[in-house]
Amino acid sequence: MQGIDFVFSIAILIMSVVAHEVAHGYAAYMLGDKTAQYAGRLTLNPVKHLDPIGSFLVPLISYTFGGLIFGWAKPVPYNPYNLPSKKWAEPFVASAGILANLLIALVFGLILRFGVGSFLPETFVQLTITLVAINLVLAVFNSVPIPPLDGSKILFAFLPPFHSVRQFLEQNGFFIVLFFIFFLWRFIIPVVGFLFFLITGISIF
User: Fold this and answer.
1) Tally of CB atoms within 10 A around 180
2) What is the structure's pLDDT at 3?
3) Which 3-state string (H, E, C) describes 5-49?
4) Which is catalytic among the residues 21, 90, 122, 170?
5) Distance between CA 29 and CA 23 in Å, rounded?
6) Bigger pLDDT: 171 or 69?
7) Are the C-beta atoms of residues 197 and 203 closer than 8 Å to each other?
8) Residue 175 backbone class (left: φ over 0; alpha: ψ -120 to 50; beta: rest)
């Protein structure tokens, strides 16, 4: 049964990270950059987006040791020089992925809020709980302002190009993200739990 749960969780994660990346690509496309289109990445076909480590290995490890599945897809490429205003267009593109995950969580979360206890089958409820939780995890984690996460591009829009904080984060972002994942991940869980309860009325943690 646990193996079946993992397979469904992986499928939901893949769908969610693909939606996240495609949202980035469409946001850039809307602003005039066709890099993602030329790369064949404006598609929901998961084969175009999967990353062996982020889409399979990391989810397996996170599910095995933490019970909460997490991962990522290959970043959708875009050229910031094709955007009308690099300062504000980049955070717009970055926030599109976060908003896509929040929208998915909101739509299916409201289905849970107004459908639980009535006509929804138990299997559907469990899958939907997983779907909402994973999308909230992706949205919250990607909002953290550490490169290369989306939150960093939103933060940098408010900082001068050569600000000391920006330079430090750009130079050490990879290691800070690893430190965050291994030692500060527990701070993500209460935020996800609060948002989940706020949307669905259900407590999962």
Assistant:
1) 16
2) 55
3) HHHHHHHHHHHHHHHHHHHHHHHHHHCCCCHHHHCCCCCCCHHHC
4) 21
5) 10
6) 171
7) yes
8) alpha
pLDDT at 183: 82
Distance of CA 54 to the CA centre of its chain: 12
Dist. CA 142–CA 148, nearest whole Å? 9
Q: Is 32 left (phi over 0), alpha (psi -120 to 50) or beta?
A: left
* Tokens 């019970």 -> residue: 67
CA angle 71, 73, 74 (to 5 degrees): 140
Please check whether residue 83 is in contact with residue 33, taking contact to mean a CB–CB distance below 8 angstroms. yes
Q: Can you give the pLDDT at residue 33?
A: 94
Alpha helix ranges (H) inside 31-163: 35-38, 52, 58-66, 86-115, 122-142, 150-156
Q: Can you tell me whether residue 105 is helix, strand or coil?
A: helix
Q: What is the pLDDT of residue 123?
A: 86
| Catalytic status, residue 21 | yes
> 32 or 181, which is more confident?
32
Answer yes or no: is pLDDT of 32 > 90: yes
- Per the CB < 8 A criterion, the answer to whether 31 and 84 are in contact is yes
